[in-house]
Amino acid sequence: MTEPALRVDGLTKSFLGQTVLNGVDLRIAPGEIHALLGENGAGKSTLIKILAGVHAADAGRVTVAGRPLRPRHRLADAAAARMRFVHQDLGLVDELDVTENICLTSDFSSRGGLIRFGASRRRVREVLGRLGVDIDPGRRVGDLAQAEKVMVAVARAFSAEARLIVLDEVTASLPTPEVARLKDLLHQACRQGTAFLFVTHRLGEVFDMADAVTVLRDGRRIASARPADVTHDQLVEWLVGRYVAALAPRSGESHASAGTPVLRVKDLRATPHHAPLNFTVGAGEVVAFTGLVGSGAREVVRCLAGAQRPQEGTASLRGRRFPLGDPVGAAGRGSRYVAGDRQEGIAPDLCVRENLFLAHYCHGGRVLRPRRERRAADDLIARYDVRPPQASELPVVTLSGGNQQKVAIGRALSGAPGLLVLDDPTVGVDIGARVAIHRLIRQTADTGVPVVLASTDFSEVVSEAHRAVVMRDGRVGAVLSGADLTEQRLISESYRAREVA
Ligand SMILES: Nc1ncnc2c1ncn2[C@@H]1O[C@H](COP(=O)(O)OP(=O)(O)OP(=O)(O)O)[C@@H](O)[C@H]1O
């Protein structure tokens, strides 16, 4: 009988007396794509870090292709067992080309101590060819689209003759069509015997890509199954511990029509590659900018938030000049921003409570008495379901990634914003928090606040936006609303724009 590519038995780990993994078992067959699901803080990253040798388990055993790793194994042991890890930041060097990035970890071809660049490039071309990836090995990685970067990172892991590749939320900010390209690549690698452990919060990807799925909840393995044998509702129940009707997949709903335009943007060119863009957003309207990665949608939203300086353009909010590319000026007009990049969104040296009140104090809010501030922080933690519930005084960096995102959202929504600007607000958050965040965005919009959203998640765009602006190469490809705003149209318009350009 073939040994599993990975076998995990009774893995247990505690941090500061809190049990984070509790006797977790896992089996992954060679050539299998195995999805790992769990709410924020369920223990997925901790499991992966133990596999990688970053954290030592308190108990349990890891066996790779029939050979047990020694207890408290190190990074080098994981590498020797041919496990490779692709994290969300991908770990690529933008300044180097594809060949250099791939050979950095899997060795350059050399003779007599000298690197043979031609031979290295040929080898990389052969690896990319085996995976069906059409990227020139000489291209600078910084010039690639995000989906291509993900493919280079997977190819790099694959080229090291990996037996098991762990993908930690690498699809989190990839739009639906680009996930389909990644799926083809994984299937190519699987045919050659490589197995994948694949962390995602998108249940659709489990049904679309995975051969098997394991669900963790509060550090315990709740179930493992084949996606074909379970329903969406069953997965949700395993994830959150009960059936929650609100977590069923939502299709586009007819929103109340938007009010009169309050935000007017004129001739905005976010970068030298953008065409001038004119748009308005009504009171209570949610306008989404979307498209394939690199379409230029995100930059438009970042200019509004002040996170990026535009080339040119002017704006007004409720009749008053609104500064573009000026974070302090934008905040002074009541704009609140949730950054897509979590590193940008939190102050890592501060605790959760301090992070929650950062915007309040930075914008001249009244100083609260310590006890009142602690109580208010606890209320926000409960409202946004930040875990653990006693997180108030913990350093924010000890929270799981998704819970850090909930803190950033809580900070933006807690005041009374005059404009809400969101960049992929639900990346990395679990489905329960996603529903809660969407509800809060809608409640905020319902009070007359204009909302501008950049999102790579087409189902989010369909369910939350009144209007979607599909961009490509810094230009508007299409504007969709009402019955035209469907995932299918978003996909076809994203690609149609590419063909037209
Ligand atoms: N170094 C650490 N010190 C203290 N606590 C930690 C540390 N790393 C993780 N934790 C805690 O362990 C728990 C599990 O975190 P983990 O990052 O594994 O969750 P996750 O399932 O990956 O969540 P997410 O989906 O948000 O990434 C969380 O409660 C987190 O606060």
How would you explain this protein's 3D organization?
The chain has 501 residues and is an alpha/beta fold. The protein folds into 3 domains: 6-243, Rossmann fold, CATH 3.40.50; 250-334 and 417-501, P-loop containing nucleotide triphosphate hydrolases (Rossmann fold, 3-Layer(aba) Sandwich), CATH 3.40.50; 346-412, no CATH class. It is built from 17 helices and 22 strands. It has helices spanning 44-52, 75-80, 98-106, 117-130, 146-159, 176-191, 203-209, 232-240, 297-305, 327-332, 342-345, 352-362, 370-383, 401-414, 431-446, 458-464, 487-500; strands at 6-15, 18-28, 33-38, 59-64, 67-68, 83-86, 110-111, 114-115, 164-168, 195-199, 212-217, 220-225, 261-269, 277-282, 286-290, 312-317, 320-321, 335-338, 419-423, 451-454, 467-472, 475-481. A 6-stranded mixed β-sheet has the order 6-9-10-3-11-12, sandwiched between helices. A 6-stranded mixed β-sheet has the order 18-19-20-15-21-22, with helices on both faces. Strands 2-1-4-5 form a 4-stranded antiparallel β-sheet, covered by helices on one side. The longest helix has 16 residues, at 176-191. The N and C termini lie far apart (53 Å). Residues 252-256 and 497-501 have low confidence and may be disordered. Bound molecules: adenosine-5'-triphosphate (ATP). Adenosine-5'-triphosphate (ATP) binds next to helix 1 and helix 14.
